[in-house]
Write a structure and sequence with these properties.
translation initiation factor activity, alpha+beta, 23% strand, Translation initiation factor eIF2B subunit beta, single chain, seven-stranded mixed β-sheet, five-stranded antiparallel β-sheet, F-box_dom, 20 helices, 3 domains, Neuraminidase, F-box-assoc_dom_typ3, Rossmann fold, 31 strands, initiation factor
Length: 669
């Protein structure tokens, strides 16, 4: 794709040199570029959606890296990814429903508008609407989205034999062309949505601006301009105060355009905003980006206006198109909230030279000039968001964003957050709590943020008989270093029922006695009690089953009256998350007694045990089938003499193999 690659590089250079200004212009150019990439992308017969997603992601990463401050670029890239997944789902839904897909004419040089391409019996939009209503969590917008009456399959004039022959002759290449056509059609709708966002927002002006009101705005925004002019055209009489927005003085540009449209406009200095706010009925501003928590990134000085409006109980209204709704949070590591501009906008270079300390000989500056481009407004200061879909409260923005972006992209964003932020997000909604608490999310995050070293600190037991344990993580550790950089994760407290506890760390979770906890969040689960009258508890073994994605605990008990005979041992299994929450008694074809700690590798739990025949061996417990096997024999000589010594031996993971430490170290393969 030489033409597409050159177009991508040209657009990347424009973003890097800041030649494209404005979120709408940047978003529209980005979507048009992605449409060209999809149009010329050669899609294989298998995994068509994955190939398109990989191509869009590769281009999107270059665009985001070129201008990280312009969050609209990443927003529309995720919107396009959502369209690809949605259209792929609609085709799968149509295939499951037994609908025939008509052949679509397509060339390698297919143009971007896709004119003249045939449609299927059920359009992708109808199937996508049906898929959204059944597979997406219910929301106000999804409840209002209904399948149109035209969803019924139209009757074709061709005979039944012809229709059957067409459906049988539709091969993989036609399905591939159908997917590309539907994706490009969805991208075209996205371009129209971005182009018409100003008009959609302006149509709502009559509902929010009333007669003889005083409006305050700041900076220059075309959305605000069209919004105010639309109210003027509806015969609303009001007055506008425009803060000048130093040092770029974008407010002067907005004031000139408002005066040219016939609006009564007054320009005030930024320092006069607090003095004038008591006379204002409403503050209306345009946003650079709207974060997932409802926070706003706007022109510099907008936070000052928001604080003044909050002080005087003046509504603070934010206008933003759907392409400005960002699924990221302000404390995401990859989010660059601001951009520092040249100090020459504030001071001349001659004035800066007067502030240099030439007497010291180094010429170090005595004055640091900070010239930010944007301000961040927390959601607590925002009264209302007006988008092209209507007005929304700040607390509803996370739900609106969930409708625009795919859950896969949202989970990927959440997986990059630190642990403290995840704990906060669990309080946002039940849907976020379910995602963060899911096993798949824990596994994904452990791959992105592996804990190379997990430090556990046992504190003294208090008077109530409870033990406190603190967890720390360290990304690196060197034996030669005198200090270790650690990060505090969490702290748990649980009742102390015995003097010593074995600690097992398996796939992100830790088992300490009767407690299973997540060290990153500090959440704990207590194991249920086992009603085993007349039995002694030997050991509990903790493991993870990757086949069924389940955590299990193996508990071996022994009869107190006849403990010398291993056949009276009983074997219990508890599955985390299973209902009812109780232990299950399982059969063991090889009666044995455990004599060491356990080690979990690839869904198998290993431990040293002695069988009823006196054989010392390495037992293997399959967590998926819950069957016991003899993996290897240990200590062919002096087994009875060293029987007691095995209770203090330890198994370790040695490059994916089981290794026993002790008097004679062994590696089992």
């Amino acid at each position: 794709m030489p033409d597409v690659q050159s177009t991508v590089l040209e657009f990347v250079n424009k973003l890097r040199k800041r030649k494209i200004e404005g979120s709408q212009a940047t978003a529209k150019c980005t979507v048009e570029l992605l449409r060209s990439v999809i149009s010329q992308q050669r899609v294989p017969h298998s995994n068509q959606a994955s190939a398109l997603i990989d191509a869009v992601k590769a281009v999107g990463e270059q665009l985001v890296a070129a201008n990280p401050v312009e969050l609209a670029v990443g927003n529309v890239v995720r919107r396009v990814l959502h369209i690809i997944r949605e259209e792929d789902l609609s085709l799968a839904t149509a295939a499951m429903a037994g609908l025939d897909l008509l052949d679509a004419s397509d060339d390698d040089g297919e143009d971007d508008n896709c004119k003249g391409v045939g449609y299927s019996a059920m359009s992708a939009a109808v199937a996508a609407a049906a898929a959204r209503s059944t597979l997406r969590p219910p929301s106000l917008q999804t409840l209002l989205e209904g399948t149109p009456e035209s969803a019924a399959v139209p009757y074709t004039s061709s005979s039944g034999a012809d229709s059957e022959s067409k459906s049988k002759s539709a091969d993989k290449s036609s399905i591939t062309r159908k997917l590309k056509h539907d994706v490009i059609e969805g991208v075209n709708h996205l371009i129209l949505e971005i182009s018409g966002c100003h008009e959609q927002i302006a149509e709502q002006a009559i509902e929010h601006i009333h007669q003889n009101e005083v409006i305050l705005t700041l900076g220059s925004s075309r959305t605000v301009l069209e919004f105010l002019c639309a109210a003027k055209e509806k015969k609303r009489s009001f007055r506008v105060f425009v803060a000048e927005g130093a040092p770029r003085y974008q407010g002067h540009l907005l004031a000139k355009e408002l005066v040219a449209r016939g609006l009564q406009t007054t320009v005030i200095t930024d320092s006069a905003v607090f003095a004038m706010i008591s006379r204002v009925d409403m503050v209306i501003i345009g946003a650079h980006a709207v974060m997932a928590n409802g926070g706003v990134i706007g022109p510099v000085g907008v936070n000052m206006a928001a604080l003044a409006a909050k002080k005087h109980a003046v509504p603070f209204v934010v206008l933003a198109g759907s392409h400005k709704l960002c699924p990221l949070y302000p404390h995401n590591p990859e989010v660059l909230l601001n951009e520092l501009r040249s100090p020459s906008e504030l001071l001349d270079f001659g004035e800066v030279s007067d502030c240099l300390d030439f007497g010291a000989g180094s010429g170090s500056p005595l004055l640091q000039v900070v010239n930010p481009t944007f301000d961040y407004v927390p959601p607590s200061l925002v009264s209302l968001f007006i988008t092209d879909t209507g007005g929304h409260n700040p607390s509803y923005m996370y739900r609106l964003i969930a409708d625009y972006y795919s859950a896969d992209d949202l989970i990927e964003i959440l997986s990059r957050l630190p642990s403290k932020s995840l704990v906060r997000f669990m309080l946002v909604s039940k849907s976020w709590q379910e995602i963060i608490s899911s096993k798949s999310f824990i596994r994904l995050r452990s791959l992105i943020h592996p804990l190379r070293f997990l430090l556990v600190l046992n504190e003294n037991c208090d008077q109530t008989g409870h033990l406190s344990v603190s967890f720390f993580s360290s990304s690196s550790m060197s034996l030669s270093s005198t200090s270790i950089s650690t990060t505090f994760l969490s702290k748990i407290t649980f009742p102390l029922r015995q003097a010593a506890y074995p600690i097992y760390y398996v796939n992100g979770l830790i088992n300490i006695g009767d407690i299973i906890c997540n060290p990153c969040t500090g959440k704990t689960i207590s194991l249920p009690k086992l009603a085993a009258s007349g039995e002694s508890i030997r050991r509990r073994f903790f493991g993870y089953d990757p086949v069924n994605n389940q955590y299990k605990v193996l508990w071996i008990t022994q009869n107190l009256e006849r403990h010398a005979t291993p056949q009276f041992n009983r074997y219990h299994v508890f599955t985390l998350g299973a209902k009812p929450k109780k232990w299950r008694l399982i059969d063991c074809g090889i009666p044995h007694t455990d004599w060491s700690n356990c080690l979990c590798i690839d869904g198998f739990v290993y431990y040293i045990a002695s069988t009823d025949t006196g054989l010392m061996c390495l037992m293997k417990f399959d967590l998926s089938s819950e069957k016991f096997y003899i993996f290897a024999r240990v200590y062919e000589e002096m087994e009875a003499l060293l029987l007691r010594a095995y209770s203090s031996r330890t198994l370790i993971n040695y490059h994916g193999k089981v290794r026993k430490t002790g008097l004679q170290s062994e590696v089992f393969q």
